[in-house]
Amino acid sequence: MAETALKENFDVIVIGAGPAGYHAAIRAAQLGLKTACIDAALGKDGKPALGGTCLRVGCIPSKALLDSSRQFWNLTHLFGEHGITATNPAIDIGTMIGRKDKIVKQFTGGIAMLFKANKVTPYYGFGQLQPGNVVTVKQHDGTTVELKGTNVVIAAGSDSIELPFAKFDGKTIVDNVGALDFTEVPKRLGVIGAGVIGLELGSVWKRLGAEVTILEALPDFLAAADAEVAKTAAREFKKQGLDIRLGAKVSKAEVKKNEVVLTYTDAKGEQTITVDKLLVSVGRRAATKGLLAEGTGVKLDQRGMIEVDEHCHTGVDGVWAVGDCVRGPMLAHKGFEEGIAVAELIAGLPGHVNLDTIPWVIYTEPEIAWVGKTEEQLKAEGIPYKAGSFPFAALGRAVAMAEPAGFVKVIAHAETDRILGMHLVGVNVSELVHEGVLAMEFSGSADDLARICHAHPTLSEAVHDAAMAVHKRAIHKAN
């Protein structure tokens, strides 16, 4: 058995170098705290790769493939409207995947450079919290080091949920990692789960020629989103050829001769379909297995998430937790803010994250984004409101771009006019949603937003006109 060596003491030890962890580590170091960050992930080349799921196999690589596939889709479906034609267009999947891998390596290497520049000490291996704020690190070479921290920030992230009847094999039945590395376009791609990952990666391979069938157990499409947004998005996805089947509960997935036979039940009874590849995207769970030794005092809830208060403190002196392994949405940018907030709290500064103004984005075509409450939530809570919307089809810039699908909706309190939510579906709404975030953070009203001059012609005018429509003042649509 390898010896455990006590390496050194730190002001802050961060377990996990994903979005929440590396932000916490860098900010702590900026504030003059002696900081270490532990991460176990390895890249395709077998070398340590910082950045967590987001940089390695999530946000960044998926956006690279979404952009590549969008370019190909536009070439084959949209460019004709502009008078642009191409003979026998083709896409080299190996080159596309290689481009994605190059981008990933650039950004994971970038985190290592930032650690060096900010004097964050990295440890590569599996970290486990022991009692007394001690962290043991089982390094990749088999040795173990022991670190002592005045403060420990747990940022362990999350893992894909695996279905008992559809175990990941990395080839035929895959999670998001496998779906980012197909060597060719599958003729038939099955997807279990019509959430963010299923829709985004399903869209990638559909644009490149796959027949994509998405099976969603819930009866409603994108139940967390505004109902009108979900309805508009579903209509556009149907036009693109995505076959989304709601109320479809999968019970079996059998691999036979490099194919997967799926058995599911819907309103019509038991049915089967056969696909060449199966992506399972039914959610993620906190990666807390094996993270806590006996006697740390840190508590997990029934879902395996670390229990924390509103300041991300675990209740154990000097132990904090942030990101996907704690309550709140599993979003990289939520982790960013929590990591920074905790570092500042440790340094004696004010730190706070407003979970009510965290924006959500789905990077499909059209994009879907929102912040704050939906109409359905406000009705259920008995909160009086007014809503105004504006379609991209009435916007000169969107039509000139041949991107007329979708709309922007602004929801405000009926009595105070304070903005309670903004819901968008359409081109580039991942950027536009931040007008709503900013307005809500400053307790802005719909009238405030309506009276702010927006450049013409821009997509942001849809936000302006939607705010005007709350009080039936929109100029470019009937109120």
From TrEMBL:
Q: How is the cofactor bound?
A: Binds 1 FAD per subunit.
Q: FAD/NAD(P)-binding domain location, by residue?
A: 10-339
Pfam families the UniProt entry points to: Pyr_redox_2, Pyr_redox_dim
List the source organism: Noviluteimonas gilva
| Catalysis: reaction(s) | N(6)-[(R)-dihydrolipoyl]-L-lysyl-[protein] + NAD(+) = N(6)-[(R)-lipoyl]-L-lysyl-[protein] + NADH + H(+)
Keywords tagged on the record: Cytoplasm, Disulfide bond, FAD, Flavoprotein, NAD, Nucleotide-binding, Oxidoreductase, Redox-active center
Residue positions binding FAD: 63, 127, 324, 330-333
**Which GO terms label this protein's molecular function in UniProt?**
dihydrolipoyl dehydrogenase (NADH) activity; flavin adenine dinucleotide binding
Q: What is this protein called?
A: Dihydrolipoyl dehydrogenase
